[in-house]
Amino acid sequence: MESALTARDRVGVQDFVLLENYNSEATFIENLRRRFKENLIYTYIGSVLVSVNPYKELEIYSKQQMERYRGVSFYEISPHIYAISDNTYRAMRTERRDQCILISGESGAGKTEASKKILLYYAVTCPTSDHMMTLGDRLLQSNPVLEAFGNAKTLRNDNSSRFGKYMDIQFDFKGATIGGHILNYLLEKSRVVHQNHGERNFHIFYQLLDGGDDDLLTTLNLERNPHSYSYLVKGSCPRVSSISDKNSWKAVKKALDVIGFTEDEVQKLLNIIGSILHLGNTLFGEGEEGETYITTETQLSNALLGVDGSALKEALTHKKLTAKGEEMISPLNFEQAVSARDALAKAVYGCSSVFITDVYFMYIGGNLYFEQFCINYCNEKLQQLFIELTLRSEQEEYETEGIAWETVQYFDNKIICDLIEEKHKGIISILDEECLRPGETCDVSFLEKLEDTVGGHPHFITHKLANGKTRRIMSREEFRLLHYAGEVNYNVNGFLDKNNDLLNRNLKEVMCQSENQILSHCFRREEVIDQKRPGMAASQFKNSLMKLMEILMSKEPSYVRCIKPNDAKQPGRFDEVLVRHQVKYLGLMENLRVRRAGFAYRRRFEAFLQRYKPLCPDTWPNWNGKLADGVSALVNHLGYKAEEYKLGRSKIFIRFPKTLFTTEDALEAKKPEIVIVIQSGWRGMKARRRARRRREAAVLIRRCWTNSLLQFVVAAVLFASRLISYDLFHFRFIKGFIYRHEEYCSENDYFLDHVRSSFLKNLRKNLPKNVLDKSWPTPPALLVEASEHLRRLHMQNMVVKYCRRVQPEWKKQMMQKVVASEIFKDQKESYPFSVGRLFLDSRLERDQISLKVLQTLGSEKVQVGLNLYGVSVIKYDRRGFKPRPRQLLLTNTFAVLVDRTKIKQRMDYTALRGISVSSLCDGMVVLHMPCEDNKQKGDAVLHCSHVIELVTKLAMMANKTNYVNISPGSIRFAVSRVKEGIIDFTRGPELKVAKGKRGHLLVVSQRLFSHHVDRLCGRESVKKPSSS
C-alpha cells in the first residue's frame, strides 16, 4: 500500500488514517472524490472498507484479480472487497474463530452488489468438490430469489432492499463451504398493501404476471395486467423501463431449481403470491347496523390458500374475544375488516419471504414514521456495536504488542439506545404500555405519555418542550431524537396501529388448518392455543435485534461501508452534499477519530524493514540480526523522535502520517541510487560470467584438438583390423555355403548359425498379432520342425491371452455360438445371418411374464435372464393348425408353454425325444415328446422369429445337441399315439404358413436374396395360416 503514497496528491491516500487533517470532514470527502474520479472506489479506514458505487462495470472483479488478493497480507496491495473477503477467510482458518462482514449503507449504495462479490469470491477460491460446487451455486443463485421477494422499486432505487439479512456461511476444517443459512429482519410488510406514489410492490408480483406462462396464470386465475389488482397500483407505477420483469422471472425460476426447491414447493409458494393479489381485490360492504360483509367472491383466495371458504369469510368480518374464560364473536366494522384483510395479506407474504436482503441505512430527512423509527434504532445499535468492537480491537492490539493504552474520547451513543430500549422507561416500553392500556388511546396520548416520562432527556424534544425557534419547524404530532447521525423528527401518526399490527385469533385458527405446508408451518397451532398475548411489533423487533447483536458480538467483525455518490445513478458524478450526508450518518468521521486516537500507521517488523532497509547502511542490503534490532537501527538512522513511534513485540507503530510520508519520500529519492548499484552489480556479474565462459571455451578447444589427433590414430588402427576381420568372415561364409547340405561341422557352422539367427530375427518381427492371423514366415529346410513347434507354442500363447481377456458374458456367448455352428453350419440357410447377431439372455422382459407364472415356477428359483430364457412363439394346433400366440419359457430342467397367466404345457428335458427344424429360411421348430406319457399333449409345433437362438439354448440346457434333426423337405410329428402329421417345406416369394390340401401344414420359405437379409434373420412376423 505504501507504494501508492507517492501519487497521493493525485489519487489521495488509500487509508483515511493517513490523512494529516483527520478531523476535517472536507479533507475526508476530498480524498473520496479524488479516488472516485480515478475509478478507485475502495478506501480503508484501518480495517474498515469504504466503497463508493461507481454505477458502471469496472474490470476489477476477474478471476485473475481474485488470485491477486488470495493469501496476500491485508495492506500489501490496494483496497478491495476481495481483500476483506480473503482476510476474514484466512483469519477464520488460522485463528479458529468465527468471522462476520457487516455491510451497511443507503439504498442504492451497492450493498447487494458487495454481498454478491463476497459470495463469488468464496465460491471461486475456496476448496471445492462436486458437492461444494453445488453449494457454491446455491449461494450465488440465491440472489435472484432474495431480490424478487425482498426488493422493490422506491423513489431512490429501482432495486431497493426492503428488509435486513444475516447470512451465515459454514466451512469445514479444510476451508471448504459445507452449507449456510439466512435470517431476515424487519421485512417491510406494509409495502404489500400500500406503496407511496412512484413506488412499486415487491418484484415477485410483477415478475409472475409478466413472465409466468399462460398455464400457470390460468391455474392461479390471474391476468397479465397489473392494473387489475388493487395491491399493485397504489404507487401508480406498475411498469419500470429499467426493469425487465420477464427476464427476471426466468432467473428466479432457474434459481429456485438450483437452490433445490421441488416443483410442488414452488407451486405452493406461487399459490400464496396469487392469493395475496386476490385478497387485495376482496371488497367489503357495511350494513345498516354497522356490520360488515364481503361483496366479492373469495373462492379463488380460499383455494390458493388451502383453507375453508366459509371459515375465512367469517374470520375476515368477525373477531373472537375471550373474557373470563368465555369466547365471544364480535362483528368488525368496515375499517376493522379492511385492516384484518391487509393484516392477513402481510402475514401471508411474510411466510413466503423466507429469504433475505441487506442491512439498513439511517433515515434523516422527510416525514418519518414507525418503520423508519425501527430502522434508525437498528442503526443506532449497529453504530454502538461498531464503536465498541473497534475500540476493543484497538485495545487488544495494543496489549498484544505491549504498548500502553491511551484513553480515546468519542461520542458514546449508549444514552440514545437506552432512551429507546430501556425497560419500563424507554420509548418502546411506553409504546407497548399505551397499546395495552384500557380505555381510549391514540397516537396523541402516546406522545403526551412520552413527554411525561422522558421529557427531561437531553436527546428528546417535542413541540411542547422545544424553544420558540424549534417550535416553528416542528409539528405538534412530532417528537425529535438526537441520533449519532443528527437530529431526526418522527410523526407519531400510526405508531399505535402499526405496533398493534396483529392478526385476529380466529384468522390464525383458519390459517393453521391450511393444506399449504408453507402456511401451516408458519401459523402454528401452539400460538393459537397459547392464551398469552404475543409481543408488540416494536418489542418483537427489539428482541430480534438483540439476538443479532449477540451473534455479531460472538464473532470477529469486518465492516464494509457503502456510499451512493449521486441520486441520478450517473457514473462519474460526485454529489458532495449527498456524500457528506452519508459520511455523517455512517459515523465514518467518528470511526476515523477512534482509529487515529493512537497511532496512524502500524506494520510488522519484517514488512517495514523489507521496504525501507535501503535508507540505512546498517540494514542494506541485508540485515542478519533480530528484526526488532534492525527496525530500531533503521528508525534511529532516519532520525525518528521518541514521540513519533513505538516499537511493539512484532510491529512498529508510527503516530503521525507526516513521519511515514517523509520516510516514503526519502525512499523515492533513494531509488535512483539503488538502481545504479543494482545495474553496476548486474553488469559486473555479466562481465565475469562472459570471461569465465571464454576461458572454459579455450580449454575445451585445446582438449578437443588433442583428442582429435588421438582419435585419428585409433581410427586408422581400427580400420585396418576391421579390413582383416572382413576378409576372414567372407572366407568362412563362402566355405559354409558350399558345405551347407552336410552335417553340422566346423566347415559350415558359421553359415548355418547365420541362417538360424536370420530366420529367428525375421520371425520376431513378423509374428502373427491375433488368433485369426494364419500367416507364418517360411523356414529354411533345417528349421522346419523347430518352426512348426514355435508356431504351435505362439498360437497357444495367443489363445491363452485371448481367453484371459474374454469377459464371462462373452465367454457364454461364444460357447453358444460354437454350439450353434456345430448344429446349423452348412445345414440351415438362415444360419449365416445369425452369426453376427448376439444371443440374448431372454427375449422377454420380466414385466412381460405373468407374475402368477413366475410364482408357479418359483420352486426352481428362476430369474429372468439368468436361469430363465423367454421368447414369444406361435403354436400351431396339431388338429387344424390354428395359430395361437404363446410364450416359451426355458428353465434349467424343463420348458413350458404359457398362455397369458396359464401354463398350457410342461416339457421335461429328460422326456424330450428330439428337436426338428427345416434346412430353409423359416422359423418352424418341432419339439418331439413321448405320446405314451399322459401328462404330455404330443409334439409341439412352434414358429419363432429367433429359431437359431432358441434351438441352440434349448439343446444346451437340455443337453440334447445331438438330438437336433435338420430336415430338407418335410418333418413328421406325432398328433396322437396312433396318428402323425407332416409339415411340408417349399420356397416362395414370401414367408407363409398355411394348411395344405392333403391336411399337411405347408410352410413357404423365402428365397435367399440379399435384400431379404432382415427377413431371413426373423424380423418379419409370420402371417396367420389360411385354408387353401
UniProtKB/TrEMBL annotation:
Residue stretches making up the TH1 domain: 828-1007
Localization, UniProt: Cytoplasm, Cell cortex
Taxonomic superkingdom: Eukaryota
Annotated region described as Actin-binding, given as residue ranges: 545-567
UniProt keywords, alphabetically: Actin-binding, ATP-binding, Motor protein, Myosin, Nucleotide-binding, Repeat
GO molecular function per UniProt: actin filament binding; ATP binding; microfilament motor activity
GO biological process: actin filament organization; actin filament-based movement; endocytosis; glomerulus development
InterPro entries xref list: IQ_motif_EF-hand-BS, Kinesin_motor_dom_sf, Myosin_head_motor_dom-like, Myosin_TH1, MYSc_Myo1, P-loop_NTPase
Leader peptide range in chain numbering: none
One Gene Ontology cellular component: plasma membrane
Binding site for ATP: 105-112
The Myosin motor domain, residue ranges: 12-668
Sequence similarity: Belongs to the TRAFAC class myosin-kinesin ATPase superfamily. Myosin family.
Protein name according to UniProt: Myosin Ic, paralog a
Organism for this UniProt entry: Cyprinodon variegatus (Sheepshead minnow)
Source organism phylogeny: Eukaryota, Metazoa, Chordata, Craniata, Vertebrata
